[in-house]
Amino acid sequence: MRKGLSVAELGDLLERPLNATLATYRRDGSVLLSPVWHEWQDGGLNIVTTADDIKARHIERQKRASAVVSDNDFPFRGIEISCEPILVRDADVGRETMVRIARRYLGEARVAKYAANVTDEMIVIRMVPGELRTWDFADDVELFGGAAE
Q1: Which partner from 9, 16, 18, 46 sits 20 to 30 angstroms from 105, CA to CA?
Q2: 131 lies in a domain?
Q3: pLDDT for the residue 113
Q4: What is the pLDDT of residue 20?
Q5: How far is CA 24 from CA 31, 32, 53, 59, 146, in A?
Q6: CA 78 → CA 8, 30, 67, 71, distances in Å?
C-alpha cells in the first residue's frame, strides 16, 4: 500500500461523484457517520447541509470532523481528512455550492429540478485538512490479480 500521497497523486478520485462519509461527534463522544456529496476546491472539501442539520450542530459543539472518500475500483484510492471545519453561513455561497455539487452527481439535465426543490437555508461545511491521510494499492497490483487496466 502506498501512503502519504499528494491529492494530485490520487488522480481523479475527488472529481468523481462518489459519496464521502462524514464523521461528526455527538455530546457523548460517539460518532455519527453520514454519507454526503462533496467537492474538492481550493485545497479543501466542501459539503453542503441545512443550517439546522445535526451535523452542523455537532461541528459547532465539538469543533471537529473527519471525512473519507474512497473508490471501489483498483487501485482502491482513498483520502481521509480530519480538521476543525468552518461553517460558512452565507446563503448565496451555500446555494451556489449546492448547485455546483449537485451538478456533479446529477448532471446538467437534473440539477435545475433538484435545486428548485431545495428551500432550506444551505450552509457549507468547509474542511481544510488539519490532518490528511491518503493511500492507494497501485504497488500491490499482483495481489489483485495482475496488471491494472
Answers
A1: 9
A2: yes
A3: 85
A4: 98
A5: 6, 5, 12, 7, 38
A6: 12, 23, 11, 7
